[in-house]
Amino acid sequence: MEESDTIITLIGTKLAKVGNEFIFKGAARECEPCKLSRTCLSLNQGSRYRIINLRNTGKHECFVHDSGVSAVEVIEAPVTLAIESRKAIKGSKIVYEPVSCSIANCENFVLCHPSGLRQGDKFVIINAEGEMNEPCRKGYSLKVVEVKR
User: Which of 41, 72, 74, 104 has the fewest Cβ atoms within 10 Å of its own Cβ atom?
Assistant: First the structure.
């Protein structure tokens, strides 16, 4: 992890624990008048983040979190997903295209349609993990990879 990958943001004090992960859903209406909203809202909507360090800056008042917010350092957590086997090469850059499948009760559905990703998002494959636990019901040749923006 490079220092440039680290982002400082604010999170509810009760949630501010090293190792906690969250998906940034965007601003709440109550955030509009807040003078600290720029710090809270500097994350990519829909992305998963992991808290890696707590900042000792005290607690700040918040219109959303009843216990206030604390400053934390986060990194965007890697995402595990399924892609076409021929594209699953460690170090390669990909543009996310969700697997064309609507079988919601499939064991692989979450890998083929991970939360927070949008078609066209750009990633680097940091680990080509290999085969899926269950074969694709549609017969696609897919591999599991770990990616980061």
Answer: 104
User: Do strands 122-130 and 142-148 pair parallel, antiparallel, or not at all (unpaired)?
Assistant: antiparallel
The whole-angstrom separation of Cα 114 and Cα 81 is 6
User: Distance (Å, rounded) from C-alpha 122 to C-alpha 98?
Assistant: 12
Long-range contacts made by residues 32-40, C-beta under 8 angstroms, separation at least 24?
33/63, 34/62, 34/63, 36/10, 36/60, 36/62, 36/69, 39/8, 39/9, 39/10, 39/71, 40/9, 40/10, 40/11, 40/69
Instruction: Write out the two tokens for 61.
Output: 């008042």
Evaluate if pTM is beyond 0.85: no
CA distance 61 to 84: 47
Rounded to the nearest angstrom, the gap between the alpha carbon of residue 74 and the centroid of all alpha carbons in its chain is 11
CA distance 118 to 46: 9
pLDDT digits (tens, 9 = 90+) for 42-86: 898 888 899 999 998 888 999 999 999 999 999 998 999 999 999
What backbone torsions phi and psi does residue 44 show, to the nearest 5 degrees?
Answer: -80, 120
